[in-house]
Amino acid sequence: MPPVTRICAWKYKDSVSAEKRREKLDGLMKVYDELKNLTNYGPVGGKDISGLGQSHGYDIAYVVEYKSQETTAEFNASPVHLGYAATLTPLIDGLFVYDLIKGDYGV
After folding, report:
1. 81-87: long-range pairs with CB below 8 Å, 24+
2. Backbone phi and psi for residue 16, each to the nearest 5 degrees, phi listed first
3. Span 38-64, pLDDT tens digits
4. Which DSSP symbol is given to 2?
5. Is the dihedral of CA 94, 55, 68, 36 positive or negative?
6. N or C terminus: which one in the chain shows less Cβ crowding within 10 Å?
7. Domains of the chain (ranges plus CATH)?
8. Helix 69-77 crosses helix 79-88 at what angle (to 10 degrees)?
9. pTM of the model
10. Of 91, 81, 65, which Cα lies nearest the Cα of 11?
11. 79 preceded by a cis bond (ω within 30 of 0)
12. Cβ of 17: how many Cβ atoms within 10 Å?
C-alpha cells in the first residue's frame, strides 16, 4: 500500500499567546514522537515565508508521511492524537487537513 502524505495547517485565534502557541507546537511534536511507528517521516513544517500573500492567515503548516491509509486511520483514531486535538481546537479559527497519495490526482 502506498504512503499517505498529509498537509496540515491552522490559524490561531488572535487571543492565543506566543507561549501557548509554543506549547501547542511542542505538544504536536510529542504526538508524532509517540506515534512515530505510523509514519515514514515528519512532521516537517514552519511558518509561511513565500511573500505571496496566499497563506490565508494560517500560522503554522506541516507535512507528514504516514506508512499507509491504514496507519493514517490508526493515527486519526489514536487517543494520543484525539487528546491533543481536543486541547488545540478551542484555540484555533481555522484548520486545513489534506491527505493525498503522491501522483494520484484522481483524473
Report:
1. 81/31, 81/35, 84/27, 84/28, 84/30, 84/31, 87/24, 87/27
2. -80, 125
3. 999 999 999 999 999 999 999 999 999
4. -
5. negative
6. C
7. 4-100 (3.30.70.100)
8. 60
9. 0.93
10. 91
11. no
12. 10
